[in-house]
Amino acid sequence: MKNGKKFMATLVIFSLIGQIAWVVENMYFNVFIYQMFGASAADISLMVSASAVAATVTTLLIGALSDRVGKRKAFICGGYILWGISIFSFALIRTDTVAAILPAGASAAAVCVTLVVVMDCVMTFFGSSANDACFNAWLTDMTASGGRGAAEGINAMMPLLAILAVFGGFMSFDLSESRSWSIIFCVIGAVVLLVGVLGIFLIEEPSMQTDGNRNVFRNIIYGFRPGVIRSNPLLYLALAAFAVFGISIQIFMPYLILYYTEALKMENYVFVMAPAIVLAAVFTALWGRVYDRAGFRRAALPSIALLSVGYLILFFTRTTVPVFIGSLLMMCGYLAGMAVFGAVIRDYTPKNRSGMFQGLRIVGQVLVPGVIGPAIGAAILKNAETVVGNDGMVSFIPNEKIFLGALAVLVPLMILLGVLFAAIKRREARQ
């Protein structure tokens, strides 16, 4: 692994700011359309699923294109700049603005929900180009197998640090006010844009070998060819396990903040969650080293165990201290699992084709979980309790059953992991 200060600064800055943007999208866009436009669980599921499809198609295309070009830096910097600009656009989506141009009787709230879904896909295109496709390929290019667990531990802790930063930054805002969201989108957009500019001076172009293949379509479908699958069975088993792991997470994650605020009435949830986030971030950074020293099996199983216990506590309890403990264990298991799966997938990714395989990784990490997980969550919440707000909007209240659904998905995950562990053992025996 490149251990220079410049590499570490690039890793931390681009990973953290990218994750902050994703946290706003993944955890707060749901709150945005819920609070501003009275979105239903089905609306939230549609938005998450559409974004997952956009992320996958984008990463397949741009990952393969960056491999053909043999460059990462331009895609990362340009993508972050356009990503920031697209985030600005959400400040313009307001019911009063939309209502002024709609015919009488049309629902401004429904149109705003549609606009958010569409613009979320546009924003995802730029974000996935910069982060999912090219930054992740850059990280694979810049690390050697012996140090990938450590680098992935740093990379995997960033979602928690991003959650902490966003929670802390949002504390002073009344999220039921349109003005608060306008400020949030402008600030986040500006930060992302400035990081893209900073990358021009900070990012080192990795050394890459290209095969001279100018057919981008062939590069896009490379990872889906039967011959490639047969040649890399461990990679595809790891991706399948990662997809099931992600389904479990996506059953509850789109509704997590709404569960805290609407079901548990935790107005101080930021103060409760902040210590859990800090502890989980430290744990995740250290857990990547467990992968390097002890291997995939010994790093993966404790992660799943922590996640399971966290689910059970969150399902059975509703008071502050147990919810804190359950959230801490859930987040430790979630982020440690992300680090472990991320590291093993990088280890089994063929050299000099990391860009092509970023799209395949997104299929497992984003598309499959992003389509199936929220749909399961929405089905679980289909008959959830509802409440009528002062403005007449009817809103659903998420309940604890989402954690039980997430726990149930870990059963097929353990079966897949058993198959993967056996395949790894057979490979090691042959070497």
Write the layout of secondary structure elements.
Blueprint (H helix, E strand, L loop, with lengths): L4 H33 L3 H29 L3 H16 L6 H5 L8 H35 L5 H23 L7 H25 L13 H5 L5 H6 L1 H20 L3 H8 L5 H26 L1 H21 L3 H28 L6 H27 L5 E3 L5 E3 L4 H30 L1
Helix pairs in contact: 1-5, 1-6, 1-7, 2-5, 2-15, 3-5, 3-7, 5-15, 6-12, 6-14, 10-14, 10-15, 10-16, 12-13, 12-14, 13-14, 13-16
How would you concisely characterize the structure shown here?
This protein has helices spanning 5-37, 41-69, 73-88, 95-99, 108-142, 148-170, 178-202, 216-220, 226-231, 233-252, 256-263, 269-294, 296-316, 320-347, 354-380, 401-430, and strands at residues 386-388, 394-396.
Explain what you see.
The chain has 431 residues and is mainly α. The chain has one domain (5-430): Growth Hormone, Chain: A (Up-down Bundle). It contains 16 helices and two strands. It has helices at residues 5-37, 41-69, 73-88, 95-99, 108-142, 148-170, 178-202, 216-220, 226-231, 233-252, 256-263, 269-294, 296-316, 320-347, 354-380, 401-430, and strands at residues 386-388, 394-396. The protein has a two-stranded antiparallel ribbon with strand order 1-2. Helix 1 runs antiparallel to helix 7 (178-202), helix 3 (73-88) packs antiparallel against helix 5 and helix 12 runs antiparallel to helix 13. It is globular. The two termini are 24 Å apart. The model has no long low-confidence stretch (mean pLDDT 86).
Report the CATH topology name: Growth Hormone, Chain: A
Question: What is the name of the CATH superfamily?
Answer: MFS general substrate transporter like domains
- Average predicted confidence as pLDDT: 86
N-to-C span: 24 Å
How many structural domains are formed by the residues? 1
Structural class category: mainly alpha
H and E order? HHHHHHHHHHHHHHHEEH
**What is the CA-atom radius of gyration, in angstroms?**
21 Å
Number of helices: 16
Q: Which sequence of strands runs across the widest sheet?
A: 1-2
CATH architecture: Up-down Bundle
The major β-sheet equals: 2 strands, antiparallel
The level of helicity is: over 70%
Q: Class in CATH?
A: Mainly Alpha
The number of distinct β-strands equals 2
β-strand percent reads under 5%
- Global geometry: globular
Low-confidence sequence ranges: none
